Amino acid sequence: MPWYVLYTKSRNEKITAERLNEMGIKAYCPVLKKQKQWSDRKKTVLEPLFKSYVFVNIEEKHMREVFKSPGVVRYLYWLKRPAIVKDHEIQSIKNMLNDFDHNEIKMQDFGLNDTVIFESGPFINVEGKVLSSSGKKYEVFLPGLQMKIFVDTTQNKLKTIAH
């Protein structure tokens, strides 16, 4: 059976996965252990690795059953079909979470005016400045080439650099 990606209500990832598992639907919400500092104490909390996403392992004919859980909004689509994640990709996420210090795992989002450098693609090692963003797509100005380009970070690797 394939893994599908569910989009959940904000901050409902863990409870949605728990409810789906209670319903007999195999659900996985990868979490990171994070140290949080409050004014009076430190506490270790579990935060979802992917905000608003839960993976479900379900047969296609039973896909509608997930909507019985109140935290589910919709399936994530790719090319007009529900997005599928392969078993080995789910296992890679689990291995990463087991093998690495959670404080070293960071999800990268780029802010306006961040200076970035390309780590892959035709502009490798070229620096640019983030002008705007929409999801995983960014408008980047490349001063050395005096041009604006649009970058999809699912296809190209970018890294923030400090100046």
Kindly summarize this structure in a few lines.
With 163 residues, this protein is mainly beta. The protein is built from two helices and 14 strands; from the N terminus they run E-H-E-E-E-E-E-E-E-E-H-E-E-E-E-E. It has helices at 13-22, 87-99; strands at 3-8, 26-28, 31-37, 42-48, 53-57, 72-75, 77-78, 81-82, 84-85, 115-118, 127-134, 137-142, 147-152, 158-160.
Question: How does this structure look, described?
Answer:
The chain is mainly β and 163 residues long. It has two domains: 3-104, NusG, N-terminal domain (Alpha-Beta Plaits, 2-Layer Sandwich), CATH 3.30.70.940; 115-160. It has two helices and 14 strands; from the N terminus they run E-H-E-E-E-E-E-E-E-E-H-E-E-E-E-E. The chain has helices at 13-22, 87-99, and strands at 3-8, 26-28, 31-37, 42-48, 53-57, 72-75, 77-78, 81-82, 84-85, 115-118, 127-134, 137-142, 147-152, 158-160. The longest helix is centred in the middle third of the chain and has 13 residues, at 87-99.
Note the total helix count: 2
How much helicity do the residues have? Answer: 10-25%
Say what the CATH topology of the largest domain is: Alpha-Beta Plaits
Distance between the termini: 47 Å
> Uncertain regions: pLDDT < 50 for 5+ in a row?
none
Overall average residue pLDDT: 87
Largest sheet: 5 strands, antiparallel
Shape: globular
- How much of the sequence is in beta strands? 35-45%
Count of extended strands: 14
Classified in CATH, the superfamily of the largest domain is NusG, N-terminal domain
Order of helices and strands: EHEEEEEEEEHEEEEE
Protein name: Antitermination protein NusG
InterPro entries: NGN-like_dom, NGN_dom_sf, NusG-like
Domain NusG-like N-terminal: 2-93
GO biological process, one term: DNA-templated transcription elongation
